[in-house]
């Protein structure tokens, strides 16, 4: 892989001078890993940043991730290298739409996927990630739950709990994961008959039925690492495949579909990281009242893990 190593050196030098930390989500362009302090899922990255004494957080991810980092580290300056990096699923629900959704179901708790805006978090009871969603819903010990914004993750949780909880999902979804079809999986399984399928729960339920393992980004990567199998069909964003190929060169990883690319996740490049640090630009600001409300559902989630 070709990197601009002179630019990498400049970023590392600038990062040290400014007491900054760089976070990279697993869907980012793999070049970002060259300067990142932590690489992983969005919540993990925000938690790691909060534990450091860094004054500046540069978040190579999408907008809601940078907001989550700001919620957990309100005293730090959080920068998003490119403001183009939004999230179509997170944008499918705003605070007014959530209030309207809640108004139809009296006193039903809202479980909010971490892939959501700060405002939506502030209007929810508890957050969840794709790896802990089942445990979060189970912990509520209630027969009804509102789940926002991802209907497919919500339905996956419902199936895992054998329909013992009535999960009412908001009709949001991840366009990238929905571009993965059952036909794509079957085609790859036929071509690579020794491969096992690792899928993200944001995929369509018919895709998940064909998977050998269903889990979060981190879960998929961990499963690939510990599995004795040598060939894997990966049903999630291409960034995961890029990193698995780099980190586990003795195994074969096949992207289930060339359509499994999130364009919003690909806006950040090394030059954007450098400019964000140099000019301290594209700062993410979250209203103090929203932070005060939004941190509570995150804390409730962390408390049950």
Notable traits:
single chain; 305 residues; alpha/beta; Rossmann fold; 4-stranded parallel beta sheet; 14 helices
Q: Can you give a write-up of this model?
A:
There is one protein chain. The protein has three domains: 5-86 and 265-285, NadA-like (Rossmann fold); 90-173, NadA-like (Rossmann fold, 3-Layer(aba) Sandwich), CATH 3.40.50; 180-259, 3-Layer(aba) Sandwich (Rossmann fold), CATH 3.40.50. It has helices at 5-17, 42-51, 63-72, 95-103, 118-122, 133-140, 151-160, 175-178, 182-191, 205-208, 217-226, 238-247, 270-279, 288-304; strands at 20-25, 38-40, 56-60, 77-79, 110-113, 126-128, 144-148, 166-169, 196-199, 213-214, 231-235, 252-255. Strand 3, helix 3 and strand 4 (77-79) form a beta-alpha-beta unit. The strands form three sheets. A four-stranded parallel beta sheet has the order 2-1-3-4, sandwiched between helices. The protein has 305 residues and is α/β, with parallel strands linked by helices. The two termini are 38 Å apart.
Runs in which pLDDT lies below 50 for 5 or more consecutive residues are: none
Strand order in space, largest sheet: 2-1-3-4
Task: Please name the fourth-level CATH homologous superfamily of the largest domain.
Answer: NadA-like
Round the Cα radius of gyration to an integer and report it: 19 Å
Shape: globular
Order of SSEs: HEEHEHEHEHEHEHEHHEHEHEHEHH
Q: What share of residues is helical?
A: 40-55%
């Amino acid at each position: 892989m070709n990197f601009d190593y002179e630019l990498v050196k400049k970023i590392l030098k600038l990062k040290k001078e400014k007491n900054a930390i760089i976070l990279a989500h697993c869907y980012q362009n793999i070049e970002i890993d060259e300067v990142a302090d932590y690489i992983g899922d969005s919540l993990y990255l925000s938690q790691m940043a909060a534990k450091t004494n860094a004054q500046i957080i540069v978040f190579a991810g999408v907008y809601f991730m940078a907001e989550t980092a700001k919620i957990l580290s309100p005293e730090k300056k959080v920068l998003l290298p490119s403001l183009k990096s939004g999230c179509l699923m997170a944008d499918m629900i705003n605070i007014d739409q959530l209030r309207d959704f809640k108004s139809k179901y009296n006193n039903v708790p809202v479980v909010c996927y971490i892939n959501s805006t700060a405002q939506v978090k502030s209007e929810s009871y508890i957050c969840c990630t794709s790896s802990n969603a089942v445990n979060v819903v189970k912990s509520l010990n209630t027969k009804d739950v509102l789940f926002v914004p991802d209907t497919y993750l919500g339905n996956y949780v419902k199936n895992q709990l054998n329909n013992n909880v009535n999960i009412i999902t908001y009709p949001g979804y991840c366009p990238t994961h929905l571009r993965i079809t059952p036909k794509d999986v079957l085609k790859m399984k036929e071509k690579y008959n020794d491969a096992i399928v690792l899928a993200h729960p944001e995929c369509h339920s018919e895709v998940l039925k064909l998977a050998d393992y269903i889990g979060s980004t981190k879960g998929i990567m961990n499963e690939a690492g510990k599995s004795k199998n040598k060939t894997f069909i990966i049903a999630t964003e291409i960034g995961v495949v890029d990193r698995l190929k780099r980190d586990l060169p003795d195994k074969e990883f096949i992207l289930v579909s060339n359509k499994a690319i999130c364009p919003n996740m690909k806006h950040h490049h090394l030059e954007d990281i450098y400019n964000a640090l140099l000019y301290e630009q594209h700062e993410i600001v979250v209203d103090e009242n929203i932070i005060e409300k939004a941190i509570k559902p995150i804390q409730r989630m962390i408390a049950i893990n």
